[in-house]
Amino acid sequence: MKRMMMALAAFAAAIVSACAHVPPAPAACPAPDKAIIEVGQTMRDMYAALTKDDLGAWRAVITKDFFSFDGGRRFDGDALFDLIKTNHAKGTVYVWTVNIPKVDLACDMALVTYVNTGSVTSSSAAMRSVSWLESATLRHDGQRWRISFFHSTRVPDPPPPQQS
User: Is 100 inside any structural domain?
Assistant: First the structure.
């Protein structure tokens, strides 16, 4: 009987321990209409942080495991922020505009795609209009949407008109 009680106690302890290691159930899914607006705003907040070289605001909109593909390279964590900040220090000015974001939701995950139109002005060249095709995946952390992956591809300049 004593062995049986000890075995049951060990079994109960194992169950309690296993339950303690189960991740919590996800919170309720954000309301879709609100989520669509918030996802678009998160992308605008990312650009606002980059424009101002505001590392705190940057980190508020990305996940800890954030990475991006931009300019043919992979950037982990703060590396994309650091690149933009370095370019700002050299005199480069960026203007970004998130146009008509299309947001697809799956509870606490979102995919956003849009065309970013803006400009780039370097210290040694005149302002040039630029567009990028962009997409990002975001996760809702129970408080807000955060960008986990970002991809940007520059739209090529149109070819010069051919002369006949």
Answer: yes
Res 123: pLDDT: 85
For residue 82, give every residue at least 6 positions away whose Cβ sits within 8 Å of its Cβ, in sequence order, or none. Answer: none
From the number of C-beta atoms within 10 Å of its C-beta (0-12, 13-18, 19+), residue 83 rates as: middle
In a domain, 133, yes or no: yes
pLDDT at 109: 98
Evaluate whether residue 85 is within a structural domain: yes
**In angstroms, rounded to a whole number, what is the distance separating the alpha carbons of residues 40 and 113?**
10
Q: Nearest Cα to 46, choosing from 104, 142, 132?
A: 132
37 is a domain residue: yes
Q: Length of the chain in residues, anyone? A: 164
The DSSP symbol for 142 reads: S
Residues of the chain with pLDDT under 50: 4-25
Domain count, the chain: 1
**What are residue 130's DSSP bridge partners?**
118
